[in-house]
Task: inverse folding
């Protein structure tokens, strides 16, 4: 589903975030990418989502070479992905419902069916009762679950999460971990980047450990 | 196809909502555009009305041939025959002095004055329509007829109308130059509005890109915004001119009663109104297109 082959990412200014990384994640797998801050976890996820492009080497996601993707093709790759960010990137000028609606709106989904799916996604993360609430009035954990609902509403084949439990306490983190496992159980490939070792250990998934831009253990 | 249509309907609806969510800013922008457009369009309306006036006064050049007051009907017949046989005359209409007086009495408000005259001061006259209407031919005919016996005066009618019309053509050119300048202003206003819109919607644009929105999807509401704003500005200009004409016509009604003539300003024809609206919407669209192309590429998720 996702494969890196000798991928190096050098940022302008000379910082090398990844150095010759080779790894493969199969369809239906649940993988944690861990390692200390600055090890290249976020960069790896950004490469998978075509937010960044590899300096050398190739990144292939669901059969498409991300590095060689034309800009016009990028949106169509991203529609196959669900992205979750540490800072959530929610829109604060609209309700929870409208936030989750966004991925369906960009693909021109039929209105009634879209509303049904949005409610299903909100229900899945336990926020159905708060569909009319604006994100500002949600707690940190609720905001993160809202971001998860937005990432899964269009039923992507791959879920990429960057530090999804960044600012949450352990109990909350465990709940979110279970949520990811349930998506994985219905066939979604899940990739989670985290530096939260206890969170990762509890889940007992396959781990890819990065250190200074290299794969230390896979 | 259905999806495509849905996208457009949706973009239009969001855009309208955005315009209405900031009513004051929208109103100000629309007024600026309306006033900017009303100036050249108002001038255009004035010129078109003046043109209508000169046409109704007949810009087909004619010669008025006035006979001496002591000319009898025999003289008139002789001159009529001479005019009708003249190779460059297409038509010569005889206007007897009594008829001319009657016409004067009925068509202007001067009945009292005419009635108080001791005798008819008007001469017999001919209205001559020449075959060749070039200025040189007209002058040659005028000079020739002037020399005939019992002819006191030959007047080239409609010459002033032709001069006025030439002047109006120059005025129309000035109007189009002015319109060009204000079209630039409209594009600039839209460009700036859209630039601010993009800046305030930066986050939304970034998120949209992350969840797989195409560039055209992101661009669409901004283009609609520009076009709708331009259209509203065009409507505002139309309304400003309509109001101006309404007020002026009120004043002109008194004037036309005094002169016993029908003087009334007319608004833009339906075709011209349509062009005004289409033009302003297109310019708004163009302004936002420039702005979107310039500013959207700078927003990429990091």
Result:
């Amino acid at each position: 589903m996702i494969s890196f082959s000798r991928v190096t990412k050098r940022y302008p200014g000379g910082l090398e975030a990844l150095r010759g990384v080779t790894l493969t994640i199969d369809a239906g797998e649940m993988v944690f990418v861990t390692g200390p801050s600055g090890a290249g976890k976020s960069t790896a996820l950004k490469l998978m989502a075509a937010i960044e492009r590899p300096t050398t080497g190739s990144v292939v996601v669901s059969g498409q070479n991300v590095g060689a993707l034309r800009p016009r093709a990028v949106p169509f790759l991203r529609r196959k992905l669900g992205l979750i960010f540490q800072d959530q990137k929610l829109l604060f000028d609209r309700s929870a419902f409208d936030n989750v609606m966004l991925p369906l709106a960009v693909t021109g989904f039929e209105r009634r069916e879209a509303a049904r799916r949005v409610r299903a996604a909100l229900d899945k993360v336990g926020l159905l009762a708060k569909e009319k609430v604006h994100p500002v009035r949600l707690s940190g954990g609720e905001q993160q679950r809202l971001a998860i609902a937005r990432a899964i509403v269009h039923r992507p084949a791959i879920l990429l999460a960057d530090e999804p439990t960044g600012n949450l306490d352990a109990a909350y983190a465990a709940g979110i971990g279970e949520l990811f496992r349930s998506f994985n159980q219905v066939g979604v490939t899940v990739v989670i980047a985290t530096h939260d070792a206890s969170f990762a250990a509890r889940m007992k998934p396959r781990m890819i450990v990065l250190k200074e831009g290299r794969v230390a253990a896979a | 196809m259905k999806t495509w249509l849905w996208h457009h309907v949706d973009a239009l609806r969001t855009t309208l909502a955005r315009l209405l969510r900031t009513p004051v800013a929208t109103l100000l922008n629309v007024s600026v555009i309306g006033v900017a457009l009303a100036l050249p369009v108002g001038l255009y309306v004035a010129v078109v009305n003046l043109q209508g006036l000169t046409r109704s006064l007949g810009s087909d050049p004619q010669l008025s041939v006035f006979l001496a007051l002591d000319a009898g009907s025999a003289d008139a017949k002789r001159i009529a025959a001479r005019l009708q046989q003249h190779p460059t005359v297409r038509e010569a209409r005889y206007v007897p002095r009594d008829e001319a007086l009657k016409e004067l009495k009925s068509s202007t408000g001067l009945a009292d004055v005419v009635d108080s005259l001791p005798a008819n001061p008007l001469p017999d006259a001919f209205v001559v329509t020449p075959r060749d209407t070039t200025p040189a031919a007209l002058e040659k005919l005028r000079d020739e007829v002037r020399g005939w016996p019992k002819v006191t005066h030959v007047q080239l009618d409609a010459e002033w109308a032709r001069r006025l019309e030439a002047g109006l053509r120059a005025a129309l050119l000035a109007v189009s130059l002015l319109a060009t300048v204000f079209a630039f202003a409209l594009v600039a206003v839209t460009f700036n509005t859209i630039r601010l819109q993009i800046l305030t919607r930066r986050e939304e644009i970034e998120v949209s890109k992350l969840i797989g929105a195409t560039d055209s999807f992101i661009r669409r509401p901004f283009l609609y915004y520009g076009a709708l704003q331009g259209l509203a500005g065009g409507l505002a200009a139309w309304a400003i001119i309509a109001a101006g004409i309404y007020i002026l016509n009120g004043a002109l009604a008194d004037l036309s009663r005094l002169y016993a003539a029908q003087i009334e300003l007319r608004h833009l024809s339906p075709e011209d109104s349509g062009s005004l609206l289409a033009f302003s919407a297109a310019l708004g669209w163009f302004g936002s297109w420039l702005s979107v192309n310039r500013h959207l590429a700078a927003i990429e998720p990091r």
